[in-house]
Amino acid sequence: MYVVALTGGIGSGKSTVAERLAGRGAVVIDADAIVHELQRTGSPLLDQLVERFGPGILRPDGSLDRAALAAIAFSDEQARNDLNDLVHPAVRTEMVRRVLAESGTDHVVVLDIPLLTDRATHGASAVVVVDLPVDEAVRRLVGSRRMDEADARSRIAAQITREERLALADHVVDNSGDLADLDRQLDALWSDLQARAVSG
Ligand code: ATP
Hints:
By secondary structure, this protein is α/β, with parallel strands linked by helices. It has one domain: 3-Layer(aba) Sandwich (Rossmann fold).
């Protein structure tokens, strides 16, 4: 097994890269999907979030109103820190559990962690950063997701900077080109990762 953490700014193309690595045979463990599972209606984590942020983060049916929680977290640094302190340990535990299930295999395991901020994380041997200039990420988010430009920029500003993220990287995937260009880079990256997974 060889474990890498995959990260990148909002709109950089992490999901696109994760999907294309999965297509080449990677086992992708998606931190956001785990967060959604851990925050399901009636879960202990959701109870803790309501205790901290109030019942306004719930929909009438008792499920999490993600937009309401995101609005609180994006506008207030203390709230963002508190949210991270509640959510991150639970996600880490679940990711580690899923990684351990792959030990002894020759799989490349990709931990898709959008909000990666440090290298000592989840037992990954290397960090892959999907890199894109901020203006191009905003263009793609506005174009394909119909996200409001100011909203896209404020979400990007709430994350670590492009430079801070690049400083974490062992491998950089430059996603400023087209998808064919991306695939050429992923072919090379995949050969490298697979060789490491096979050699243990
Ligand atoms: P988020 O952080 O919001 O989840 P992400 O980093 O996972 O975003 P994607 O969803 O993979 O990013 O990509 C953002 C948008 O850019 C998508 O609409 C995707 O189809 C598009 N995209 C990704 N790579 C390219 C590319 N090389 N050329 C053009 N468009 C691209």
